[in-house]
Amino acid sequence: MTEIIVLDTPGLGDRGYLVGHDGVAFAVDPQRDIDRVLAAAHERGWTITDVFETHLHNDYVSGGLALARATGAAYRVNAGDDVGFERAGIRPDDEVKVGDLRVRALATPGHTFTHLAYALDAPDRAAPAAFTGGSLLLGSTGRPDLLGPEHTRELARAQHASARLLAAALPDDAELFPTHGFGSFCAATQTDRRSSTIGAERHDNPALTLDEEAYVADLLAGLGAYPAYYARLGPINAAGPAPADLSAPRRADAAAIDASLRAGEWVVDLRTRRAFAAGHVPGALNFGLDGSLATYLGWLIPWGTPVTLLATTADDIAAAQRELTRIGIDGPSAATGSPAEWTTGAPSASFPRATFADLANARREGPVAVLDVRRPEEWSTSHIRDALNIPLHDLQPHIPDLPPEELWVHCTTGYRASIATSLLTAAAHPAVLIDDDYTTAETLSLTE
For residue 304, is it left (φ>0), alpha (ψ between -120 and 50) or beta? Predict the structure, then answer.
């Protein structure tokens, strides 16, 4: 029986796949921590013979090269990609046999110029499956602007044509297995869809319901910012990434943490925003393990800055290390325990937490400065009256120019707001974290 295993990476909004039948298997778009893939194959007694990349990724470091070398598999990368390693070049319309499975490459430019999708025909599946990478997503498509503004419009038009090629080449009951589109900023727009077929996409995917001009116009109008580290990962993947190193990080004591802060390095507290607000190392920043840690840390940190991770347990450190190695942040130091153990005797820092109801009450007493760190597209839909909007990814350089009074900081759920509040308090700017769901602000009529 053919089995398609989904290797989900919710922190980055991506999926990789492992497909097996009768003892042999292939992988599609594996992430850097390939131990997950190897464990799944070992559990089922599969031999991985092929590793397929749909494209050179921008949002994570690929594990494809490391997986191919670890297993002896053929590494199937588009022959048109300029890479710094040996690969089994694959071209559009090439067909690869993996045991009784047949995998056919389809040219689907749009997310990149050399993007490929893969159609799987299996003897025990009534319809093919399509691994579509950053091409046709679930209710959306991959964004076309990652290779620079000079290529964006051309790639947007190509993306429209590629989606229609897939719809023409595959039957309505063909299942779609995209790599992006589950929260990744590689998706042009976000949807909540977790599974789909070609037939379902025909009804409401903009690439299949709009003509080219309308699709391109809507797509380009809706593109927001994407994480700064994306620009660094494409070249890393083209050169050939080193394997992930998930060995235990160097231990940092209170003196080492203090020295790191004095040197301008980043000390990252992985605890929840509630715990961080109650007490933390002065100067530390809060990127909780309970949210999109890698996306926002990778977006904000000056690339190459050494990182020290703080957490309650070694398991939390290991989980964060895994998340960060996926985007090329390697070799952190780490400490476990509590703020009292992470300082050299200085008192811990803290900041207040509040709700939108608290904000409403405070505003009845007098003016309150509100900082909204959501993205502009979120702000334009709805925002709190008289709030200042500076997206989280733009906040750091603007801190010296902010009004000096206490800022009440919010986002949609509190996660980004806690990062922002930690940045502000590390810079000695007074701030209150609004740790609440934004829908409450709308219910309280704080918005316009």
Answer: left
